[in-house]
Design goal:
By secondary structure, the protein is mainly beta. It has helices spanning about 150-160, 305-315, 375-380, 465-470, 510-515; strands at about 5-15, 20-25, 35-40, 45-50, 60, 85-95, 100-105, 115-120, 135-145, 170, 190, 195-205, 210-215, 220-225, 225-235, 235-240, 245-250, 255-265, 275-285, 335-345, 360-365, 365-370, 415-420, 420-425, 430-435, 445-450, 455-460, 480, 485, 490-500, 505-510, 520-525. The strands form seven sheets. Strands 10-9-12-17-14-15 form a six-stranded mixed sheet, with no helix packed on it. It has a six-stranded mixed sheet with strand order 21-20-25-30-27-28. The protein has a five-stranded mixed sheet with strand order 11-19-18-13-16. Strand 1 and strand 2 (about 20-25) form a beta hairpin. The longest helix is centred in the first third of the chain and has 11 residues, at about 150-160. Bound molecules: CU-O-CU linkage (C2O) and copper (II) ion. Copper (II) ion binds near residues 446, 511, 514 and 519.
Length: about 550
């Protein structure tokens, strides 16, 4: 395995989109940021140099970093922020990840512009489990905000209501030719007829899942979240914020120009072309006259929960001799976590835009996660958790109620408790965790993301989870191995994992507004007995608080 070196300079850079210019925070002046390319099992050292005027942390999304949580990045969970003028050399340990992952800022909302792909190729001498593609194409779904993102974030936190929407969805940083001033810079992907291309896709949008499609072409899904899947064909892709997909595009249509398009979905959006959509152009090479009207691909209505759940429910592990699965069959710890949007009283002397003059919040098992002022990992490692966090995160919700009913819900759960609570797991404990969506204030898909581990998605359904019925239908043969799973709107998802990575690991909804409202919690995986089952010592340059 190789040792690779990257330098990430965080800096303000001037960019022009949608007819205006402004400064955005970038890595090395690039938006989206630079792609890291490594091979399975490599170690990547990234020297992060903060030349911006803003605290920052960087997270390697989906990279488990065995026994080394120090580089993981979530602000105040594993580290204090890298302050302006400071550096942090982050050692990123790859293990069994293979495929497309990504990296992003993990402090307030700076990930809006601080993100890029993390490509992990097969080991030298090994190949993809599908025919070698003729080319590889990055597809980064992101957003452009006319306002300064820090201002958007602060207004959102102060207002207590829903955040402002972005002004454009983007593909590889470009809004596309349906927006003003954007035609000449539309992302164009050139292909030769008869060839096959590997699209490495991430949804880096802040607050919404997305649909994606290419006119007249289907896509073959071959991987997600840094693991391969059984290939399956789909004309429309659903992708959660935080999720990655590896997709084969077969350029098998008559030479022409074809639109690829993506659309965000949330309960506030219309289905027509607007600031929630984006296009790029697939251009066949060679001599031909492209037709004058380029049709847009079909995309489902923005909140089509069936289209979304059916796509996600089609993912299966490869489960071959080269890529075996290891789903825990005997479960030691069973957890049921409700995911809710709630409201909290507005602060004294503030006005809040949430329902009934309150502020919106979010919770897991009715606890709204409060960010500590120093890192949970630092406190845990030094054995001084007192005042930083408690270890009483409940295994089950405080009350049983009809979680997904449209009315008659338990109103007492609309005001959550606020606290920093963790769940302690034994080393190698096998865990089954059922996420239960609720309809308390609003039902929505929650893309739940776990740091430090991958998990098998063994089941999902709409309505209330019922173990005696639903556990009989689990897929224990070829469940997909993922790190970010969209829990269906007013439904549930069951995951299984083995807590084999000692350390402190954040788990949260990857919708930025929900994690900012408190939809997160922390797992602490204890050290094992042997010396090689303990958290490694911290590097000397951990940023101080
Ligand atoms: Cu993609 Cu906690 O992050
Ligand atoms: Cu959420």
């Amino acid at each position: 395995a190789a040792l690779l070196q990257y330098t990430f300079v965080v800096q303000e850079t001037n960019y022009t989109r949608l007819c205006t210019s402004k400064n955005i925070l970038t890595v090395n002046g690039e938006f989206p940021g630079p792609t890291i390319t490594a091979r399975r099992g490599d170690t990547v050292i990234v020297d992060v140099i903060n030349r911006g005027d803003h605290n920052i942390t960087i997270h390697w999304h989906g990279i488990k970093q065995p026994r080394y949580p120090w580089s993981d990045g979530p602000e105040f969970v594993t580290q204090c922020p890298i302050q302006p003028g400071a550096n942090f050399s982050q050692r990123v340990l790859l293990s069994d990840e293979e495929g497309t992952l990504w990296w992003h800022a993990h402090s307030d909302w700076s990930r809006a512009t601080i993100h890029g792909l993390f490509v992990i190729l097969p080991r030298l001498g090994t190949t993809y489990p599908f025919p070698q593609p003729d080319g590889e194409v990055p597809v980064v779904l992101g957003e452009w905000w006319q306002n300064d993102i820090q201002t958007v974030f602060e207004e959102f936190m102060d207002g207590g209501g829903d955040p402002a929407n972005s002004d454009a969805l983007t593909i590889n940083g470009q809004p596309g030719d349906l927006y003003n001033c954007s035609a000449s810079t539309t992302t164009k992907i050139n292909v030769d007829q008869g060839k096959t291309y590997l699209l490495r896709m991430v949804n880096a949008a802040m607050n919404n899942l997305a649909f994606f499609a290419v006119a007249n072409h289907h896509l073959t899904v071959v991987g997600t979240d840094g693991a391969y899947t059984k290939p399956f064909n789909s004309t429309v892709i659903t992708i959660s914020p935080g999720q990655t997909l590896d997709l084969l595009l077969h350029a098998n249509q008559p030479p022409n120009h074809y639109y690829m398009a993506a659309k965000l979905f949330s309960g506030q959006r219309s289905a027509a072309f607007d600031n929630t959509t984006t296009t790029a152009i697939l251009r066949y090479t060679g001599n031909f006259t492209p037709s004058t009207s380029t049709p847009l691909p079909f995309l489902p209505p923005f909140n089509d929960r069936n289209a979304s759940a059916n796509f996600t429910g089609s993912l299966r592990s490869l489960a071959t001799a080269e890529h075996p699965i290891d789903v825990p069959l005997k479960i030691k710890r069973t957890l049921l976590f409700t995911l809710s949007i709630n409201t909290l009283p507005c602060a004294v002397n503030a006005t809040c835009d949430g329902p009934s003059g309150r502020r919106l919040s979010a919770s897991i098992n009715n606890i709204t996660f409060a960010m500590p002022r120093t890192s949970v990992l630092g406190a845990y490692y030094r054995g001084i958790n007192n005042g930083v966090y408690g270890d009483d995160f409940p295994d089950v919700p405080p009350l049983r109620f009809n979680y997904t009913a449209a009315s008659g819900l338990n109103r007492s759960l609309q005001t959550p408790e606020v606290g920093t609570e963790v769940t302690m797991l034994k080393h190698n404990e096998t865990v089954e965790l059922v996420f239960q969506g609720t309809n308390l204030v609003a039902g929505i898909d929650h893309p739940m993301h776990l740091h430090g581990h991958s998990f098998y998605v063994v089941g999902w359904g709409f309505g209330n989870f019922k173990r005696s019925r639903d556990s009989l239908n689990y897929n224990l043969v070829d469940p997909p191995l993922m790190q970010t799973i969209a829990v269906p709107q007013n439904g549930w998802t069951a995951i299984r994992f083995k807590a084999d990575n000692p350390g402190v690991w954040f788990m949260h909804c990857h919708l930025e507004r929900h994690v900012s409202w408190g939809m997160g919690m922390v797992f602490i995986v204890r050290n094992g007995k042997s010396a090689d089952a303990r958290v490694l010592p911290p590097p000397p340059d951990m940023p101080p608080c």
